[in-house]
# Entry
Amino acid sequence: MDFRRKISPALRGIAIGALILLVATADTLAQNLPPPGSYLPIPNFTGVGAGLQFREAINARLSGAQPIAPAIVTPTFANLPAEQDGMLLYCRDCKSAAPCVNGGAGAFALGTRGQWACAGAALEAALNANGNKVSNLASGTVNGDALAFGQSGAQLNTLSGSKLDGSDAIVNVSLNGVKNVRAFGATGSLATASATTVAGSATVTVNSIGDFNIGNWIKIDHAGAASDANTPTGVTIAPNSYGLNPNPTSDITKTAANGGGCQVDSATGIPGHNTACNVSYTYQIVGVSQAGGWSAPTAAVSTSAGPATLSTNNNLVVSWTGAANDIAYLIYSCSGASCTPTLHAVMPHAGAPGATAELYRDFGHSFGTDEDFGTAMPSAATAQDLFAQITRVNGNSVTLSIAPAQTGTFTMRHDDSVPINAAINSICAHTATGGTVGGIVEFPATSTYPLGQSLNLYGCWGVTLSLTAAQNGDGGHPVELEWHGVTGGTVINMNKAADSRVAGLSVSGINGNTAGVIIDVDNYPTGGSGDGLATQHDTFERLELGRAGIGIRVANRSTANVQDMSFRDVQISNPSNGQGGMWGYFFGGNGQTYNEEIRGGLIAGHDIAIVSAFVGQLEIYGTDFEQNKIEAWTSDRFGGGADGNMMFSGVTSEGAQSFIFDPNSAGSNFIIDASRIADAPGPNGFVMQLNRPTAIKSSWVCGGGTTICGISNGNAPNPQPILSMQNNYGDSSPFRNGDGSNAPDTMMFTQFTDSIAGGVVRVGYLNHAPSIEACSNVGTVSANTTLLFATNSCQKISTTTTGLTYTLLTNGLIADQVVTVESYITGAIAAGPAFATSNGAIKWTGGVAPTSSVASGSVDILRFKWDGTNWLEISRSIGDH
# Structure
């Protein structure tokens, strides 16, 4: 029998398996296997049951009971087979993406849902990181990115760091309803780029992309539409002097003899000293529109009768008619023959838009710059600015949401005003009427935020702009708002805003363009739904405001009241560039303001610190005035219904040419209390030019004791009363008679009176005392003399002459006024003075006139009451020594 036929199929299978195992063992020995320990090989089983053991070892590795190190098929992307769900391959040149794409360094390819996927598929349930970190996420750019970018419901709430040192602080997010401007896309970057544009093309080329990214808002200077600004018209120049004007007004038609024109003086030791009135000055003006367009400059207008030294006493009044689209004016000037005007001042448009009468008083203080042109005057109109958003970045090629309208090379800047306004809009619908609380918009420090357009709080109620809560303490100002908007524009617009607050911010004006107004608070209707809100009870604190036309303007256009504003520790200063501005504060242009309060702070380096145009009550406490030309100017009417007060308490004034300059005589009051006024007025100027009842008490007035450091009581024919008590004057005779000379006034002290509507006087004002017994001294007389009580209710008179008559004048008296006469006999006489009256009669006590003293050294004191018709004797003291 054939031996091979005797082998059973089972034995034949074992033999074949052994043969295969021997071959496999030989192949394994021939391969470059991993080192021992990197995998668990199948051992060489022998003896009875070896086959079973071999099968169990294979099954253990296939089931996962024993680890294996498999090699998976590794095709290229081009050679991937038809997809089968669940099939796993390794693609040698795929990218980690779903679906798979070629061009990468390799990735596992999983057949899933009909396609090869080389990365994880989209989540279909909440992701649980099981306490592990997710790192190296790209910055969010659109809603829905991994990092919150403004989408609703993405706010982080009630988060606090554990290190308590700030190193683990979470930034650039809005927490607990407080809006962080960074979360809305503010960059806090002052980076610029040179952008080359082609009109009509939204793609521009920049010299360096820097930190400009997709989604950033930008401003390209003067790359927008053609200018819509209009050239001002009717420019005139008039020399103007207040030096000898007894009733100073804005009337520029006065002759030099009556206080107008230009005047020469001989006070060589005074800063305002003027030696000549034959200096040439030239002016040109450029109008600026809201969108940043500039008009062509006006034709040059000159005067050859200007002062050698410009000051508050000798200034130039430049007038023109404003244009419909203009929001500001750039004033260029120079002095001397054939001079080239350069930027001299930046001032906002006065009043509502339109053709209005504009006026600038040149006291000789130059300020202002433009970051494109510096102080040089352009020869022609300049296009508007371009405001756009970056939609694409490809190398140095930037695509904008709006195409430039100009071809050329311009400066591109970040514009954080758009995201900041978006933060404001998130808590203010600009339709408020006071029923909904707004919220807080915070500016993380330490940063400078570039603004290309105004921050707008129109119709906002209860909105705060401030540092972050952790940085709201006193001290420095680590957040700067840098104005890169239109030169002469407004930085913060608070029309129709109530119960709102601005705190802890700085607008220094050192860099960028010079603003026309830094903070504009008003109450005029615009036709929007926010008009229902009345402007009131806004607060401003710990602010640093520098170079600008006007630091803070209140009620410029309003026909309704703007009231209960509070300004605390606001520095409207002369910054390190040596330029302050035109006015620090301006109150009341078209409508009245009430109950405004300034506490502390500083106003320095301005033409005028405070302009009070139409104010019901303005109180200033503890404010430091330094190196302003004039501290307070009442330019129009003060308390329109003759019911206003302006009070200075605990203030200091250094170096101004006038502390108060008041060209009006409405029946309101100035009150100066516990203040130090160490000013140095110009020639024939007064430290105070007063035309209203004025109380000065517990104060130190006029440093240096010079005769020109005086107080004028205004219009000589009808002087207003001045109450002065417990004061220290550097000038022993501080009051002037107001007739244009520098002679001391005969009135030294007097008393306020309370006035009822219609001019009916009832009682004394302060403490309701009948009079102040500090007498004016007529001096020693040797002829019949008249006694005038209109300027002082107590008159002192001396004589050594027999038989004189003293006539009591009734000029300027009011009904029920009580007067005192002190009659001194300084040498023995035969008969003492007799008393008569210019009107009515003297009703003597008991019907008999007293017999005047005749002995040398005697004093007779008589008191009378004028009842409107006759004199009534109240008391007499005869023969006192």
The helical segments are 9-30, 50-63, 417-425. Residues 203 and 399 are 4 Å apart (CA to CA). The chain has a mean pLDDT of 82. The two ends are 178 Å apart (CA to CA).
